[in-house]
Amino acid sequence: KAKAFDFGTTYIIPRFLVDIRYSSIDPNYDPVLGLVPFNDQRGPTLYIEYNNDYKSRWLKRIHAESYSTAMDHFDGSIFSRTTFAYLSLLGNNDHQVKLSTEHQLFEGLHDDTYRVGYLVGANNRFLQYGVDYELGKRSDDPYSLVSLKGTFRILGKLDLGVSALFQNFQGTSQQYVGT
Q: Within 13 Å of residue 52, how many CA atoms lie on the same side as its CB?
């Protein structure tokens, strides 16, 4: 009978979290309940997170996280390799700078992306706006994404959220959302 399992351990101390796990999903695994997006994979995952509050003139909080996976098919061929890193710096003025990078090999195709973001009013849900820019490649093709977003309280009781996405990947696409 086909099986799936996930075994791991998490270590937590102030400011740090480390999670190490090993997952395995047999090629013929078919769950009665739930969804398993990909069968025929097994391998380790490492996740590390750091959080710290500061009392400096300009820095209020730092958050960093990173994870890495190395999943193989049961025949030994590579299923995926992923490395991700993220850094967030929150200033005392409630402005946030975000940086991230992700490198992935998935079934022979490469994703390599770099993202930078800036957010004003990071802890103010009534007035918040920002921009993200991502550049790199997806499935070995050039890729870029610009994201603009904002939330505003209007008329004293109504919250308005707006966002716009401009993506260039195998053609250009745009999306506008208001809530």
A: 10
DSSP state of 140: T
Q: Cβ contacts of residue 88 below 8 Å, gap of 6+?
A: 61, 62, 63, 64, 96, 97, 98, 99
Q: Are 73 and 41 in contact (CB under 8 A)?
A: yes
Beta bridge partners of 158: 154
Render pLDDT for 41-92 as a digit per residue (tens, 0 to 9).
999 999 999 999 988 889 999 999 999 999 999 999 999 999 999 999 999 9
Residue 28's nearest CA partner among 6, 56, 3 is: 3
Q: What predicted TM-score, i.e. pTM, was given to this entire model? A: 0.88
Task: Specify whether the CB–CB gap between 147 and 163 falls below 8 A.
Answer: yes
Residue 150: both structure tokens together: 């904002």
123 CB burial (10 A radius; 0-12, 13-18, 19+): exposed
Cα separation of 80 and 139, whole Å?
Answer: 13
Does the pLDDT at position 174 exceed 90?
no
Give the C-alpha separation, 70 to 41, whole Å. Answer: 10
